[in-house]
Write a structure and sequence with these properties.
single chain; alpha/beta; Rossmann fold; 42% helix; globular
Amino acid sequence: MNLPRTPSFRLDGRRALVAGGACGIGLGCAVALAEYGAEVWIAARNMNRNKKAAAALCAEGWVAHPLALDISDVSATRQAVANHGPFDIVLNSAGIARHTPVTETTEEDFDTVTGINAKGAYFLSQAVAKALIDAGKPGSIIQVSSQMAHVGGQERAVYCGTKHAVEGYTKAMAIEWGRYGIRINTICPTFVKTALTEQTFKRPDLVAWVEDKIKLGRIGEVEDIMGAALFLASDASALITGTSILVDGGWTAD
């Protein structure tokens, strides 16, 4: 009997760009990709943090490089991909949140959050896919979205809107790029303990709301996201595109 074999999770010989990779979920995903053999570029606006993160990965015996990148700057994003790509794997964890009641949302906050979470993510995907198509290479693009891309949340209308947008154009991009062997998917975490969520956990009312909604009864950790990132980057997910992996502790099960 010829038994099937599990596809490899190894990423040896592949080049990965992790936007927002200097801290939080992005750093965790950079570690996961590097640990399994990828050559990783850690990209964010703060070059000092990029260098520290890359050095920490290299100290483990992995291969990592720092790269200054602000994905809200479309021209700079295109140039960075042109200079350093094509990348076999791109994971975008760059994002921002400015939570207010809808009646208090400012135009500046709306534009800033949308410019990074929706516009920046869109044009990063575009630049990466164009480089892969020109090189005749397949690839995997992974957007770190949110459970809020599938539900609504108090004081989070703009943030929810940007993440819903990411889910929508991920599906459309998957349709267009499938013929080239380029896959694009999202990871949708629940609340995870990072600098981005620090203020949320200082409010007892919001902590109570979060704990009530997460069916597994605990707040997420960065490590909870790393396996999903590795899976979507590797050949183990070779037939998966245009969809999302919800790492939400059951939040959206209702």
